[in-house]
Specification:
heterodimer; A: alpha+beta; 4 strands; B: mainly alpha; 3 domains; two-stranded antiparallel ribbon; 6 strands
Chain lengths: 174, 437
């Protein structure tokens, strides 16, 4: 009887400890690291947050939405001709790959180290053009106001984007 | 001194009671089960679609090279099984196993260990290609962990069907009580806190941005490449006040939700608002996966009494159903045990005509086939009885495609049923499945 009583108490204590731990982790994880107190508080939770991928900011479209960017690339063939492509146009909104590819494209802008892999992929994809290089471009969107929409313009028209080169990747010649 | 001790003792006793009341109210797992089914289905569809891109996104030399990810890690606790694979068959085997586990999680089959494999798999995909993962993947890992520690699979699942069937094989009239526990209540609470915290930080983050304060955020969202929607922009450009309403409305819901979702009177409204918000994200912004996962997380706020009332209303609408079977036929009893195990709402009453003859159907008729008696006095024999029931018992809806193919179902179903009924004594001696007792 006593052992059952103690077992129940221990179970209750363990359950209480876990819910307190997890609830605190849930609240602390997204807290901004601005203060030293939060940093200190977060320290014991960090392995738990990292291992289970709970370390999230929940900052969807925040603090600002941002204008967004579009990946474009130019295939340079052996005759020196340039063939422009917009990979977004091949994606379907209704397929999960839409956001994988879009996230990957954004990843390339943030971390140009990924550009080499992207370049290799596009070289391979356009092998029929006998590419010498692929030039990856970022088309950064500018402000697009309702008046622009009302006169029939689109957010990705040339006047609303600033195009910069991310990286030129040489294609391997076989 | 004694007063202080008494006060302290009472204070801590009250705190303990409040703690227990908040966390450990005995609760069924139904809200978590709805989340489990939805999350399992969402993962299955999403990662099923990922099969074609397995090596591109998660492979050793894919779009996101492993060495780069490995070197960029800031924390050794960031782990993925994909970091340790070397041969292509390992990727394929793991992916197939993961998809099977997602399906099993959705169906609630061997849930107690399958859920952990799904969690490990999901985290592994997300950490292997962090550039590909986005908001929904973060939410999923939080929700999956709570499902893992929670006692899911005890209701609306194949595990429950197996448990009920085992009880019914011992006694067909047995009705195992629905599972409920204090731990289930705690896990429902953890899920609720997760969703409330997510909304709170999402709102606080937005309040730091000019786009939201100025009321223009929704306009900007629809102009970005990710969510470009020409029809929406046409509408919003000509009625810009809609942008302001939608922007401020989004913030208002996100701020109010974490505080007002707990109250009995306001919960239905805020739950409806949160679901409506995510339906709009899905339809207008193309965030189908994200929105569905969020809605499944919100299911933790569905009260048990709402589900019970819904079940009662369904039962009243469908009406009473009595199945009359042959209790001397072992095969019939085993089949009934299987069939009734799916009747979670207990809509079907049973009668063994050997021990309790029916006033409506003669024994001679019952020697030929099982019968279903309806409230209006109609008696449907054999295949027609099953056909009637599968459409009206939610747990049997998965059988509807077999019973309702126009012409074909009846053309094939009747002869099969008649053959089984005529040979049931021989089938009983085969003792398929567990032996009758």
């Amino acid at each position: 009887m006593t052992s059952k009583h103690w077992r129940e108490r221990l179970t209750y204590a363990a359950m209480s400890a876990f819910v307190a731990w997890h609830a605190l982790a849930t609240i602390i994880a997204p807290a901004p690291d601005a203060s030293g107190a939060i940093k200190t508080l977060r320290m014991p939770f960090q392995p738990y947050l990292s291992f289970f991928k709970l370390d999230n900011q929940w900052d969807f479209f925040a603090p600002n939405v941002g204008n967004g960017s579009q990946l474009r690339y130019i295939v340079e063939d052996s005759h020196g001709n340039h063939h422009p492509f917009v990979p977004d146009r091949e994606l379907s909104w209704y397929h999960p790959s839409f956001f994988w590819f879009r996230s990957w494209f954004n990843g390339i802008f943030d971390n140009p180290e990924y550009a080499d892999a992207a370049g290799r992929f596009f070289c391979h994809k356009h092998a029929a053009l006998h590419p010498l290089a692929v030039i990856l471009l970022e088309a950064e969107q500018k402000d697009f106001v309702p008046e622009d929409q009302l006169v029939g313009k689109k957010p990705l028209d040339p006047e609303f984007v600033a195009v910069t080169t991310v990286k030129k990747v040489e294609c391997a010649t076989s | 001194m004694r007063n202080i001790v008494t006060f302290a003792r009472e204070f801590f006793a009250n705190v303990g009671r409040a703690w227990s009341q908040f966390w450990f109210q005995s609760s069924p797992t139904s809200p978590l089960e709805i989340t489990r089914i939805g999350i399992g289905a969402a993962l299955l569809v999403n990662y099923g679609a990922a099969s074609a891109y397995l090596f591109d996104f998660w492979g050793e030399a894919g779009f996101v090279p492993r060495d780069l990810v490995w070197n960029d890690r800031t924390d050794s606790w960031v782990q993925s099984v994909f970091f340790y694979f070397s041969a292509p068959w390992q990727w394929i085997a793991f992916h197939v196993l993961f998809l099977v586990c997602c399906a099993a999680l959705m169906l609630g089959w061997r849930t107690s260990w399958v859920k952990w494999l799904v969690l490990v798999g999901h985290i592994s995909y997300a950490y292997r290609a962090p550039e590909v993962a986005y908001g929904v993947d973060k939410i999923l890992s939080c929700v999956l962990l709570i499902l893992c520690v929670g006692p899911v699979g005890r209701a609306i699942s194949l595990d429950r069907v197996r448990a009920v069937r085992a009880a019914k094989l011992r006694n067909l009239a047995a009705a195992p009580p629905p599972y409920a526990s204090h731990w289930a209540g705690a896990c429902v609470r953890l899920m609720q806190i997760q969703m409330a915290v997510l909304f709170f930080y999402s709102a606080v983050g937005k309040l730091r941005g000019d786009d939201w304060w100025n009321g223009d955020a929704i306009w900007i969202v629809f102009t970005t490449g990710d969510h470009y929607n020409r029809l929406m922009l046409d509408l919003l450009a000509s009625h810009y006040w809609l942008v302001n309403v939608a922007t401020y409305g989004t913030i208002l819901i996100e701020i109010a939700f974490p505080f007002l979702i707990w109250q009995r009177r306001t919960r239905p409204y805020f739950l409806a608002m949160a679901i409506a918000l995510h339906l709009q994200f899905a339809v207008l912004m193309g965030l189908f996966y994200f929105s569905f996962v969020m809605m499944m997380g919100h299911m933790s706020f569905v009260r048990q009494e709402w589900l019970a009332r819904l079940g009662e209303a369904w039962k009243r609408w469908i009406g009473d159903m009595e199945m009359i079977y042959d209790g001397r036929c072992g095969f019939c009893v085993r089949s009934m045990a299987w069939f009734l195990a799916f009747d979670g709402l207990r809509q079907i009453r049973i009668r063994d005509f050997r021990t309790a003859p029916s006033p409506l159907v003669s024994d001679a008729q019952l020697e030929m086939a099982l019968y279903l008696v309806l409230p209006d006095g109609r008696a449907l024999p054999g295949f027609e009885a099953y056909r009637y029931v599968v459409l009206r018992v939610p747990g049997l809806w998965w059988q509807v495609p077999f019973f309702y193919v126009p012409v074909l179902s009846r053309l094939v179903g009747h002869p099969i049923y008649n053959w089984v009924a005529a040979n049931r004594s021989r089938l009983s001696s085969l003792r398929i499945g567990l032996a009758t007792r």
